[in-house]
Amino acid sequence: MAAGLALVLAASTAAAQVPPPATMASDADRAEMRRLMEQLTQMRSAYAQEVRRLRELDMQMQALQARIEGRVPPAAPIAAQPAASAPAPQPSPPRAAPVAPAAPAVAEEGYAGTAEDARRAQEEGRETRSVADVKQQNQALFDRRLVLENSLAYTRYDRKQLTLNGFLALDAIFLGNIAIENVESDTLNYNFAARWGLNPRLTLNLDVPYLARRTVYQKGGAGGAAASIAQERTSGHGIGDVSLSANYKLFNERGIWPDTVLNLGVTAPTGREPYGINWRILERDDDDFIRFAVPEEQPTGNGLWAATVGLSAVKTTDPAILFGNVGYTRTFSGSFDDLDNNPETVNPGHVRLGDAYFFGAGVAFAFNERTSLSISFSDRLAARARTRYEGDVWRKVIGSDGNAAMFNLGVTHALNPNTTLVGILGIGLTPDAPDFSLTFKLPYML
């Protein structure tokens, strides 16, 4: 019994010194679990960074594809950030990489599609499309190689004049003939213009007009009766006076100084001159004096060479665009076979139209990146014309001077990256100006 008891005590002591198997397995599992958790966290962080990089590469790929197709993305792609700066996301079950959403509609090249794009263009110093369109209409664009412009203008002119031929009796009764003269003219002018940008400071321009005119002449007092009115209509069409001009940029817009451009031009007498046109006699008085005569056709040009020099300036002050111009036109004298409108006589001589001074100023407001509205005032002051018959001295033509002031409203709208639609309504402010004019221009920029 003593030997058996000793064996039992020895076995119990040995069992107490050996740790239980379950406890040893539990500690190993915890260590392995911690190691796997750390590895899983690192892999999830790397996975999130790869997903972010995948999205950024997809955005850059879409932007590059838009540029290749002739478009500009509405926002610059976000630069990839270093992996170290990216915060580690919270542990989550692994998922498949999400498909990047389709890129929003991108704006076409030449203008921004959103207000954010316009703001970005302003911060980068680039001109927005509306500013470029205003400059195109008021001076020139020097960053375009070629601009082809088609324009169509309608002008309405109506002038009435009362003619009294007699005397006033008893300070109240007029004795004599009362004649009312009225001239109504409608002119349709199609102009084709080509503008070449030779370098960032010099642009050449060629303008070729084609005119169609219809004029109605009315004269009251026909046959000596004040109530009797005679009327005759004449018309004419053909190429007008072609002009060649150059724009040279003197100063770029900087600080308070505006974009300043020097304009030089010359006009050739390629149109039908108004001198030597045969007149139709409609009425004579008892003394065989011509009372009413009209030209058989309408002229399409002045018949004289002219040179023009001017300055134009544009200043952008968000959201307004200020512009103005001033210039001088010198007309040279020319000789003609007949200056008299009497079809029964021929009187050769020389003609020189009066020199003209013109100026204007206005402001344009950009509604958005594509559309702008302009309001401006323009005026042209012309001196009297002079004529000199063969063997005579120069004489001024009374009533040939003029002051033509216009109030203009214009709208520009970019149809696509290369084409702009321009509409201008001009309202005459003085008797020498047209009653109104309506112009549409369609410049195509290459």
Automatic annotation (TrEMBL):
Residues 1-16 form the signal peptide. Residues 116-132 have a biased composition (Basic and acidic residues). Residues 30-67 form a coiled coil. The keyword Signal applies. The keyword Lipoprotein does not apply. Residues 78-132 are annotated as: Disordered. Residues 78-87, 97-107 have a biased composition (Low complexity). Keywords: Coiled coil, Signal. This is Transporter. It comes from Luteimonas yindakuii. The lineage of its organism: Bacteria, Pseudomonadati, Pseudomonadota, Gammaproteobacteria, Lysobacterales.
